[in-house]
Design a protein that fits this description.
6 strands, globular, 4-stranded parallel β-sheet, alpha/beta
């Protein structure tokens, strides 16, 4: 495998869209008494439109993105419809859509049940975000602090109510994909995979403790995707059989194992905290290895492969991936129920 070409193709996770529309207001659902809100941090797996008004190429607010979203709107979500954070919000009986915090049309009515701070292309490493002009996770926490002030105003300055919302919320985090796919794969990290994944775990630790210090107690932390099985990685030059690029999968697996272990440690050292490791790697790999069992016909290609054709496939629900770096809405819908049940069991 040509690793220079592989690293270029792995940029897909953040750059598959050089992707203009605002999302409609989220529809509230019957409340979950034990989960007050959902807050999402990290990258494009969870981003619901925070990059739309940034000076960056890493955005997806144009057609055909959002083709299967309500009204066919391109909202800035990195997919054909709803993304993983939307489905988790719905599964926790909060609302059907998790609005982007930086959406200029964000309603005060949405604040008390949660918002999304994630930014497509972002990561744990500051270089990952700064190289694309997106919102680094540390700056997402700054947005969260600003949000808490706004929330307190919405609830009439009732600090006790604000604290209750913050402490009973679930904090959904997806970070690490772009650090491996962009910063490490292109050589910017100037490090071994062992040393770099150690750094990534330390950065994750810092992120979680920062949120904890600001009142967060319930955390659902996603592992990275099987990066070598993204359509972009499979399409690397010379890979005519479109097999998964195992080195990239090994990078992801190395980080995920260290991350899961560290979450177990944090659960014993931060009083009152709860942590769930969300295994996105194997959840998606199961679909990739046996797509027909879930009604898919293609796990190697994306429905929309702009480097190959400007026209997307007729039915994205038949594809595991929407584009060269992001799962389709159907894939998220397929893996989400089991994950939601685990979150209800362990974080409620």
């Amino acid at each position: 495998m040509n690793f220079s070409l592989l690293s270029t193709m792995l940029l897909a996770l953040a750059l598959s869209c050089v992707c203009l529309f605002s999302v409609g207001h989220a529809q509230p659902l019957s409340g979950n008494a034990k989960v007050s809100a959902l807050f999402a941090f990290g990258d494009s797996i969870l981003d619901t439109g925070n990059n739309n008004n940034l000076m960056t190429l890493t955005k997806c607010n144009f057609s055909p993105y959002g083709r299967d979203f309500a009204g066919g709107k391109a909202t800035g979500r990195f997919g054909n419809g709803r993304v993983f954070s939307d489905l988790i919000a719905e599964g926790l009986s909060l609302k059907t859509l998790l609005p982007a915090y930086r959406d200029p049309n964000l309603s005060n009515n949405d604040l008390s049940t949660g918002v999304c701070f994630a930014s497509g292309g972002s990561g744990l490493d500051e270089r990952t975000a700064s190289s694309q002009g997106v919102i680094w996770v540390t700056d997402q926490v700054k947005d969260f602090k600003e949000y808490v002030t706004k929330l307190n105003g919405v609830v009439g300055g009732n600090q006790e109510q604000t604290n209750a919302i913050i402490s009973n919320a679930v904090y959904l985090i997806s970070a690490g994909n772009n650090d491996l796919a962009i910063t490490f794969a292109t050589g910017r990290a100037q490090s071994t995979i062992s040393d770099y994944t150690d750094l990534m775990v330390t950065w994750t630790d810092n992120l979680l403790k920062s949120l904890y210090d600001n009142g967060a107690r319930k955390f659902a932390v996603l592992g990275t995707l099987p990066l070598g099985c993204l359509p972009g990685a499979r399409d690397a030059a010379g890979n005519f059989l479109k097999v998964c690029a195992e080195p990239a999968n090994q990078w992801a697996d190395t980080f995920n194992k260290k991350l899961a272990a560290q979450l177990n440690n944090l659960g014993t050292t931060l009083p009152g905290s709860k942590f769930v490791y969300v295994d996105m790697y194997n959840s998606l790999l199961d679909l990739i290895n046996n797509p027909q069992a879930s009604g898919f016909i293609d796990a190697a290609d994306g429905c929309y492969m702009p480097t190959m054709s400007p026209v997307p496939c007729p039915d994205a629900s038949r594809y595991v991936f929407w584009d060269i770096g992001h799962p389709s809405e159907k894939s998220y819908q397929t893996i989400a129920p089991k994950i939601i049940e685990e979150l209800k069991e362990k974080l409620a």
